[in-house]
């Protein structure tokens, strides 16, 4: 059933092709959503692998140098120390004009080499010499999710975790963040690609939580980005954002209010789950930025309000004007308690509140002068139903198995 709804909304007939009207207002999608940018603002300290890991043959040495070269390209980009011009960057990337796509390509070139190194280090994990070498790599990353990361008077705080899984985890976090940023970049021009990128980012974060960070040593002084629960939260956020696009597209194409209410409440359910995980996470990691919780709560309340707006429309059409008034009153009361702190989010949020307020005044006036129906109490009001039609796109690491021999 969910697959049929998904195909119906997105214009898929068979899996062979899809069509969507060119008259849709893609910019309207961007104006009606609140998004969480800035996840890519991570910094890292340099790593030169061949200076620490002693190769036993020329092939291993070349691979370590290639690792260092790919890592340096990422360092220069995200530390903002690169001197490469835009024209040269396009040429290096094979003609990619988007900075996001260029950065994603750099990460995708580094990841197979890093995964191969991690596999070899894992087989020698108990070797004392290998443990010392990994420690001497001094793998250090900053955070974008801590409250202290908002202040840069002395520069960002760097976390050092002496585990190769820390490097893999942070690179994958950055990869998911870049996919998320690219999804926002194309949102106003290609809504289908944007939703796919959000789902792909959700898959990366899910893989990070399930397959990588479980191996990371339990070090108290590590950033939230290197915790399983935070990766799960971000996976849920990306799914919620993909579902929000689906709901907005359904609105633009004139789908029924009942379906729209369920789609918006599907967004809310993803975010309720994220909030539950975040509350547990904040007990373990005290320095998580309140901005993340503010975003999740604001987005949850926004889509909850939109859900109730469509429920009220359906009730009014069915002649249940008193219940419609009660639903809107409750939704608006809840929404006004959760006004976002960030200005860009407040403008979107305020527009939704204003629209629902106009609708409520209309229903109240109609009920007062025509129908005179009783307005039920909150516990008598109908509960919303959810339809979640988006799923993550599983991350499949590129297998690149090359032999590495060290002087152990």
TrEMBL record:
Coiled coil regions, renumbered to chain: none
Domain BRO1: residue ranges = 89-408
SMART domains for this protein: BRO1
Q: Which CDD domains match?
A: BRO1_Alix_like_2
What InterPro entries does the database record attribute to this sequence? BRO1_dom, BRO1_sf, BROX
Regions crossing the membrane: none
Which Pfam families does this UniProt record tie to the protein? BRO1
Q: This protein's superkingdom? A: Eukaryota
The record's comment on protein family reads:
Belongs to the BROX family.
Name the record gives this protein:
BRO1 domain-containing protein
User: Which species is listed as the source?
Assistant: Sesamum angolense
User: What is the phylogenetic placement of the source species in the record?
Assistant: Eukaryota, Viridiplantae, Streptophyta, Embryophyta, Tracheophyta
